[in-house]
Write a structure and sequence with these properties.
single chain; 166 residues; mainly alpha; 5 helices; elongated
Length: 166
């Protein structure tokens, strides 16, 4: 597809250069118009511009078709990639949920708005000092972000504790 698009773009550029040459250099235009049959000068010029118009319309149609085809193929590829990303996100979420349910029981009131645990929950086996092997392993080796993240430009304190703005 890319090769076809490049060929059509090159044809459009060549056509544009030739059209500009014919419009702005009368000597070239009259010599090309003189190649026609034994028509009068006015008929030769009319026929020349009509032919130039038809060629331009065909080249423009080819350009539009290839651009639209390429655009639709790119949109389809992007949609496929977005679907793949959403599928991977769903798998990651499911994997994290399985890890959360196997590591610690869910307790009401210990989750943030986005569903993450605010503080680790201690089970009876952990209090007794026995830790299972599944609790020592993490689901993935990526660091888990802590929300709200510390950002010096943002105040993470509740509105009641903030000093009044001056």
């Amino acid at each position: 597809m890319l090769a076809l698009k490049r060929i059509v773009t090159i044809a459009v550029m060549i056509y544009l250069l030739l059209a500009l040459l014919f419009v702005f250099v009368p000597a070239v235009r009259t010599s090309v118009m003189g190649m026609g049959t034994g028509l009068s000068a006015l008929e030769q010029e009319r026929q020349f511009y009509y032919t130039l118009f038809v060629i331009g319309a065909v080249v423009l149609a080819l350009q539009l078709l290839t651009e639209n085809l390429d655009s639709s193929l790119l949109r389809r590829t992007v949609n496929q990639h977005e679907g793949k990303i959403n599928e991977l996100k769903a798998k990651l979420y499911d994997h994290q949920q399985r890890g959360t349910t196997s590591n610690a029981p869910m307790t009401p009131g210990s989750r943030t708005i986005d569903g993450r645990l605010t503080e680790p929950t201690i089970t009876q086996s952990q209090a007794a000092g026995t830790v299972s092997s599944t609790e020592n392993r993490t689901a993935d080796h990526l660091p888990q972000p802590t929300f709200p993240q510390s950002d010096p430009s943002l105040s993470n304190t509740p509105p009641a504790e903030r000093p009044p703005l001056a």
